[in-house]
Write a structure and sequence with these properties.
Elements lengths: L1 H30 L5 H8 L3 H7 L3 H21 L7 H18 L1 H10 L2 H7 L1 H16 L9 H20 L5 H16 L14
Helix pairs in contact: 1-2, 1-4, 1-6, 4-6, 5-8, 5-9, 5-10, 8-9, 9-10
Length: 204
């Protein structure tokens, strides 16, 4: 019995260490994509030996941190109503989604340096599926263009979100205006050729 309790305690300790490391990695890399493993270990309250006992490389640490950030963001987006008018649903998605992109910007830079593109796409697959479904519904309703692939349109949306984050950091855009700018730009990109672009967020 004592042996089982000891094993359970060690397992619980290991899980706490892993959780602390992943959380610290998300925070440190979220501030600076160049954050070292030593910095992450210190922030997690563990030594480098403990960190390497759970993660064999920096890439594994970055992968775990990115997975956590995307998972948390995906849960937040679950609360967004994407039903009804696709144009209004798109505006709601942008309003809720772009701050998540902004928050994870530095972490994504770290991931792009450490992880292959295929892995990054895999990590984003769940959030991407949500907006792909919305774009497909908008195409069926005739309000989103059908001459370009859905995957391309989704990539355009996320690229514009990342650009908004860059503009804020450069001092050329304020956070309170970002969602409106993104929505207006995306609507212009998504509207079928030859069709008047609807006013941002109105669906008309």
């Amino acid at each position: 019995m004592a042996s089982k309790n000891s094993t359970a305690t060690k397992r619980a300790d290991a899980l706490r260490s892993i959780d602390a490391i992943v959380q610290a990695a998300a925070e440190c890399l979220g501030r600076s994509p160049e954050a070292s493993l030593s910095e992450i270990a210190r922030a997690a309250g563990v030594g480098r030996v403990t960190l390497y006992a759970h993660f064999a490389s920096r890439a594994e640490v970055v992968d775990a941190a990115m997975s956590r950030a995307i998972g948390q963001g995906d849960k937040a987006l679950d609360a967004v109503d994407l039903t009804g008018d696709p144009l209004l649903a798109l505006a709601r998605y942008v309003e809720a989604g772009w701050p998540l992109v902004d928050q994870a910007r530095a972490l994504l830079i770290a991931a792009q340096k450490e992880l292959p593109p295929g892995r990054i796409r895999e990590l984003h697959s769940a959030p991407a599926a949500r907006i792909e479904t919305l774009v497909a519904r908008g195409r069926e309703a005739g309000v989103f263009r059908t001459d370009l692939p859905i995957a391309w349109l989704v990539n355009v949306l996320h690229s514009i979100m990342h650009s908004a984050a860059d503009e804020i950091r450069a001092g050329r855009l304020t956070s309170d205006r970002a969602a409106g700018h993104i929505t207006a730009t995306v609507l212009a990109a998504f509207t079928p050729p030859g069709t008047p672009v609807p006013e941002s967020g109105t669906g008309t």
